[in-house]
Amino acid sequence: PANIQAMRPLRDGVIADIEVAEQMIKHFIDKALGGPSRLRRRSNIVVAVPSNSTIVERRAIRDATSNAGAMNVLLLEEPLAAAIGAGLPVTQPRGAMVVDIGGGTTEVAVLSLGGIAHSSSVRVGGDKMDEMIVSYIRRKHNMMIGEMTSERVKQAIGSALAPEGSGTIIAVKGRDLVNGRPSEVSVSEAEIAEALAEPVGQIVSAVRAALEQTPPELSADIIEEGITLTGGGALLRRLDQAIAAATGLPVHVADNALLCVASGAGLASEDQSYRGILMAA
Whole-model pTM? Predict the structure, then answer.
């Protein structure tokens, strides 16, 4: 309808529309507190931010959260939040590697003693994968599909590695670009793997680059512990196999990978042993 506009306040892991972001955060605060409350001003909030976000971007996050009703805003770098949520020993003198694949960014970090020994961030994530599927189907089948359809295709048959043969085939509906009419085409798992080859390649390259920059002492720990994948993008089929093949290291997807960053931020705010890794906004 003309009176309804879909907006995305966050893009590439940072705030793109501060006013809408404030309303979104306010809604989440009210939901967490069980409804609008006059006590909202007493709430303490931990916000996970990309490790390479700038001071300006972090200030925008702080301002939006404060304006939404938070009394105290603490920031936590996303790789640390993901590692805590995945149950990795981030405060111990051992190296651990986490790859957090979110909607807008992929964070690759080597952690030890409650800090980040090395981190890198690439602006590739679930959103980029959706865009590549839209572009591929438009180019290959002359059909336009929306973002939600693209995400459903990714969840249904998305894969980081091509299957033997065509793999699973599903019907995808959209608008034919030749005659403008609603249309339906069959799309295979192999085609979607081809569409996702570029973003998957960028994620694998980021992991390999991080391993090259890792101190030798921590590299020995990573050989034993392996690489942990978190975030919604980690649920892409055979992504762990693709990274394992490229690095020669054991790779596993964290339990409840989708919520690792959120649960890690919650644990960091409640557990006193993590207090040293929270940053004042």
Answer: 0.89
